[in-house]
Design brief:
heterotetramer; A: 310 residues; alpha/beta; TIM Barrel; 8-stranded parallel β-barrel; C: 264 residues; 7-stranded antiparallel β-sheet; 7-stranded mixed β-sheet; 16 strands; binds flavin-adenine dinucleotide; binds flavin mononucleotide; binds FE2/S2 (inorganic) cluster
Amino acid sequence: MSLAVDLAPGREPGLRLRNPVMVASGTFGYGTEYAGLVDIQRLGAIVCKGTTLRPRRGNPTPRTAETPAGLLNSIGLQNIGVRALVREKAPIWAKWSVPVLVNIAGESTEEYAEIARILDEAPGVAGIEVNVSCPNVAAGGMTCGVDPVLAAEVTAAVREATTLPVMVKLTPNVTDIVSIAEAVVGAGADALSLVNTFVGMIIDINTKKPLLGAVTGGLSGPAIRPIALRMVYEVAQAVPVPVVGVGGITDTVSALQFLMAGAAAIQVGTATFVDPNTAADIIDGLGDWLEREGISDIREIVGAALPKDA
Amino acid sequence: MSLAVDLAPGREPGLRLRNPVMVASGTFGYGTEYAGLVDIQRLGAIVCKGTTLRPRRGNPTPRTAETPAGLLNSIGLQNIGVRALVREKAPIWAKWSVPVLVNIAGESTEEYAEIARILDEAPGVAGIEVNVSCPNVAAGGMTCGVDPVLAAEVTAAVREATTLPVMVKLTPNVTDIVSIAEAVVGAGADALSLVNTFVGMIIDINTKKPLLGAVTGGLSGPAIRPIALRMVYEVAQAVPVPVVGVGGITDTVSALQFLMAGAAAIQVGTATFVDPNTAADIIDGLGDWLEREGISDIREIVGAALPKDA
Amino acid sequence: MIRTDALVLSNTAVAGDIFLLRLRAPEIARDAAPGQFVEVRCGSTLAPLLRRPISIHRIGPRAAGYAPDEIALVIRVIGEGSRLLSRLREGDTLDLLGPLGRGFRLFPGTRRVLLVAGGLGLAPLVALADEAIAHEVNVVLLGGAETACRILPPQYLPPEVEYQVCTEDGSLGACGMVTNLCPPYLEWADQVFVCGPEAMLPPVVDQLRALAQGGRRLPVQVSLEARMACGMGVCLSCVVETRHGLKRVCRDGPVFDLTEVRVW
Amino acid sequence: MIRTDALVLSNTAVAGDIFLLRLRAPEIARDAAPGQFVEVRCGSTLAPLLRRPISIHRIGPRAAGYAPDEIALVIRVIGEGSRLLSRLREGDTLDLLGPLGRGFRLFPGTRRVLLVAGGLGLAPLVALADEAIAHEVNVVLLGGAETACRILPPQYLPPEVEYQVCTEDGSLGACGMVTNLCPPYLEWADQVFVCGPEAMLPPVVDQLRALAQGGRRLPVQVSLEARMACGMGVCLSCVVETRHGLKRVCRDGPVFDLTEVRVW
Ligand SMILES: Cc1cc2nc3c(=O)[nH]c(=O)nc-3n(C[C@H](O)[C@H](O)[C@H](O)COP(=O)(O)OP(=O)(O)OC[C@H]3O[C@@H](n4cnc5c(N)ncnc54)[C@H](O)[C@@H]3O)c2cc1C
Ligand SMILES: Cc1cc2nc3c(=O)[nH]c(=O)nc-3n(C[C@H](O)[C@H](O)[C@H](O)COP(=O)(O)OP(=O)(O)OC[C@H]3O[C@@H](n4cnc5c(N)ncnc54)[C@H](O)[C@@H]3O)c2cc1C
Ligand SMILES: Cc1cc2nc3c(=O)[nH]c(=O)nc-3n(C[C@H](O)[C@H](O)[C@H](O)COP(=O)(O)O)c2cc1C
Ligand SMILES: Cc1cc2nc3c(=O)[nH]c(=O)nc-3n(C[C@H](O)[C@H](O)[C@H](O)COP(=O)(O)O)c2cc1C
Ligand code: FES
Ligand code: FES
């Protein structure tokens, strides 16, 4: 039975995962934090924290708040910067068998390209996930992910700057995610991941003020799952590259829903906070399910729920 | 202590509610169904089921599915049509003290206008809520709510066709809800209500097919609350007319959050299914809260959480 | 119909993953008729969100040792909601809305009823059996399920009921679909009541068609399931096509004359 | 640090809306140090979603009749999560992740410790008191709360502890903030440990500043609260400004030297 998938089949040597279960950016640190609790080498891939050119302090606290079946966060890309990452983290990853993708965010097209160039030389980096969608950073972030032209521009610049597999991560805060997906694929993305978080907020009725220090934050978790799933279903029908489904996945059943909606792989985010073993449990669960169903290759069920004429 | 609000202060005789707690379209039928269980005359207002020019059969079943803290529905505007409504329902409402708004949906601008004209003569109709946002009807619905020009066109046509207060209900499935809100207010809306449901789906992994008969449906319930609240917060800062907050309100605390975000009134939808007394409980809860806080008029807290310079 | 916090008197695992909940719910016990259901809140949190429709299984049958203010529900564990219900303990409360829907109609002249249950379709038929027995009507109850541990053991039924069971895997009673057991009893009964999965209806309809060709038209009532959101007739989630157009299972049903929903 | 299903041995309402949970959790009891916490799953459903950080209140203190594989938590009911925890019953299991964070550091030479608790800040300080007593260190515990029913009754503390309480409304003990009780004991103690709301820190800092002017620099450790999502140092939700930049309360703390987080 095979769980293996390739997220960059159009590019040598591809981005081969031994299984389609990744952990999402910002929810697994640099991969080292959970090492004591989770057998991280079993994961399909790890996407590390959002990384910028220079180190960032991030947003004021409070930075998270719970909502019904959801989590709002406004971390604001606190990170050590790409150079420290290449120096301190990538050498650790180079010894791992699990591929690590670096999630990057820039404040301009040039910054995106520069980060990608710096990563290109780093051993231990298996690919780049371009965050054109972070809703927390006023400059860059949001504005570029909601506009097909800008999103394509950033994609092309990153594509140009690196030979690594490039996956572009889309924001769901748009009227028509398919048009953004098509633009980004046209600009050279090897794969797409979707979705990032939905812009939301919560008000503390005691202080009569927004609870988060940054006023708004990004909503993740099971609450957003049905919307994320619909977007994956739409995008998977529209683009020829692998799509990675993210958003509210908590268990094998929800992972299977995304695969059947056309996702070649999935990412687990918020659920890791609830149970650090979620991703590993899903890997086991997918294997068991395939066996019960008598299916020998996970790729057979990718897109099983898509319209047959698509 | 006063809970009263006016949702059409710019228009004689206004749309005065004795309290800001309404029940949302599609979740309270024609108001008669819950009459045995809820003291409906206490409500701020009732918005009746989405109504079209001709009767509609709606979508295939299954039409609903539960999601984490949410509900997907694809009822597809099954309704008796506006003429039957005027004949059979409006005369009942005319005897009620609670105002009833009719939620309308057309397949073209002319249809919207025609429905509005028919309602204009009906006693028992306190106002019109224009659903430019129903995600379930291929023709009309979605397409017009996501485009500022079309949304304004529909608003202007309805405005033209009736002397009743006109509230326009916005869809959240857009990149920039503020631009739609501004366009609609510019076209003559007396008030805005937001949000309608988010397009989502669920896949049945046993059949490997979308669970809903209509494939996608609209997501409502507490899951969407943080996103709805953020949109109300944005729109309330941008438009000069009353904004009605809808989306995942389940209790007094969540109702207060929407009021503080700038909503002049709120609507309870899905929560009524969970507890039919939710709206009545919120009315009591708001009264108690004002008393505890020593506030004499609910309008004092409307927008309390908005930036002070706005 | 009211909303009430019923008191859990007991919760018994009666077979496999099936639980029998006895509840004190005076207003519901007073107003309920066999075939009606309640909408149950499965927990106090926002997930699971919606109430679950659950058939009323017993309405204070004195003969079975119930007090008149008691009702019973049977729960089969399927997903999150039923799992939470299965964990209720004596002394807990359970938030109910009901009784809801239109129940079974036992005709005054009826002397012999056939009840045909697929799986937990049995639940509401037992309340009907109680009523029939109280009216000195003879009751045959045919119960089928996939496998033995999904069959309600006979000690949970009124002793007057003739109870025949079958399982799809043959682990208890005859092997096969419950509808296979029907033919002899269709000759015998004055009224037939069916509750269970949709798949039971085609064979029943076939058998009735055969009977009808022989000149015998039996009155058959069927209780339908549907995905519900409100349970109150408001949301139009649970509609079903009938001879008179779309009807709501929650309010116009769940019990329909078979002739309303199927032609033969 | 592990994830484990602890067994609930007892759940006692000890005061107002405060509950004492005794749990069998061998690995956590073995590894935990005073001041560390666990991340607790408050239910089995998706709402409430996140685990809640809860301080470890007792680590199997034999003198208090605990077995060595037991821990205790104290819970004050605030919202949904703590409400669910307050309803746990003997025999239930509780999903824990821990022990997490860096605890209090009792210096080898210390003979007299002052523990200053605001509200449920008392919870982890009792584990520290147990340890101190085991090392024959003298312990004064000052506990403050808004009102009497939020004060842990003395029978739940080791008898060796000198326990002074005060309430903001004067309903028990002295009237006022717990920090008002500190001054005499600051002269007496070798080490001070503070746990409670942020608002306690400024008065403590003021008192320490006065002492420092008199030439006495006391080592003070403070346990901080912060909104957490992961509890594991991953999400960067719980950061706090320190002398060495942003630190994570969940991993670099919750216990910090006061000099790290405040200047005086
Ligand atoms: C009129 C009626 C009477 C019923 N009586 C009983 C009874 O007596 N005992 C019992 O155990 N069950 C009964 N059911 C089915 C019961 O409502 C569902 O099995 C139960 O809700 C499963 O919920 P869950 O949360 O465990 O499963 P999940 O799969 O988690 O449920 C998810 C959602 O799907 C809906 N759903 C799941 N299965 C069904 C189904 N078969 N029909 C309709 N909706 C479904 C649930 O209501 C819920 O909204 C009845 C259903 C109806 C419509
Ligand atoms: C290190 C640490 C140790 C703690 N120890 C204890 C303890 O021993 N006993 C105890 O009863 N409580 C303790 N708390 C606080 C406890 O985590 C929250 O009071 C509790 O989570 C309230 O949750 P709720 O679901 O009842 O309330 P809700 O208000 O519904 O919680 C909603 C969200 O806000 C967060 N939250 C609410 N209050 C706080 C708070 N004061 N600090 C941080 N986050 C908060 C919750 O974790 C949750 O994510 C501790 C908190 C921290 C950070
Ligand atoms: C605390 C937190 C931090 C995040 N940081 C990033 C980030 O740095 N870059 C990014 O692209 N996405 C980030 N995300 C988004 C997640 O990667 C993921 O897209 C989102 O949470 C939806 O998935 P989920 O519902 O499984 O959590 C973050 C999410 C959370 C909860
Ligand atoms: C079953 C159902 C039917 C609905 N029908 C309509 C409708 O006909 N017209 C409309 O404008 N909104 C309709 N809505 C949307 C609600 O009015 C409301 O905007 C939405 O559910 C969000 O609010 P909530 O989270 O409180 O439910 C419907 C919602 C549900 C759940
Ligand atoms: S479930 Fe809402 S109408 Fe039947
Ligand atoms: S709570 Fe996630 S880093 Fe501290």
